[in-house]
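Incident review: delayed structure delivery

Summary: a single-chain prediction request sat in the queue longer than the usual turnaround. Root cause was a stuck worker, restarted by the on-call engineer. No data loss occurred. The affected request and its eventual output are reproduced below so the record is complete for anyone auditing the incident later.

Affected input:
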Amino acid sequence: MNCHEPQSHRSGKLRKFCEELVLPETGVVVVGHGTANPVGAAETKNIVAQVDAILPNIPVELGYLEVIEPTIEMAVERLAARGCKKVVALPILLFAAGHAKQDVPQALQEAVARQGLSVTQADPLGLHEQVISLARRRFYEAIEGLAPIEGGSEALLVIGRGSSDPTASHQLWGFVRSTYSSMVRVAKHRFAISFVAAAKPTMSEAVDQLMLEINGRPSVRRVVLHPHLLFHGHVENQVEKYLEKARSQFPSVEWVKVARLGAAPEVADALVDRGLRYLCGSN
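Output delivered after worker restart:
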């Protein structure tokens, strides 16, 4: 597939290729983080259903890392019962942090060891072109109908979930550059990043920095908050809570929130694309 092709063409080629992909004794476990939030859980299941449809000849099961069932162990058991001897894991994770590097691999290895299977784990979604394209679309949806503010008085705050991983800030800035560096619409924006938990700066710290006055006047008149999140849950609720506080604290500023990625086809396509080299190399 040509990396310069339009997204729709590349997606179509991916799905056509996968329709004809037959891998005996190989199954896929799509690994979700796990959430008690019913909307987030439904979005996860929706993505897994899309992955299942993209890979019609390969068994696909959902396994959550924590909080709710089915667990990763249960998903691997189901694949074993369906005759699979090899498992390819597709983690629904945005970045390579603790879950991707430690928790998911450990849970997978323990699960396949009990069944006598082998497992390989695909990379997180990261800066996959489908994710970047979807993030840009979410931004444009959020600002639709809003006229640019003259004088460069707009700011963009990209918010990550947060992690104790030392590369958390580097990875989030990488997302910011990949998503926004080519967009003329934000060329004069002030940029900042923040995290909901476990990393600095916090949302409050980042906004306080953006609101520093220049020559006695507020530096920004509009702030676009872009929470880079997959599904609804506790983290997005924390962002909403902070947004309410910010609107009260800075009433003269216009606050705009970008929607989460959600159960969009681009997420399912990116997941499968991340796993293809492991699937195609598994037999």
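Verification: DSSP finds nine helices and eight strands in the chain.
Action items: add queue-age alerting; document worker restart procedure.
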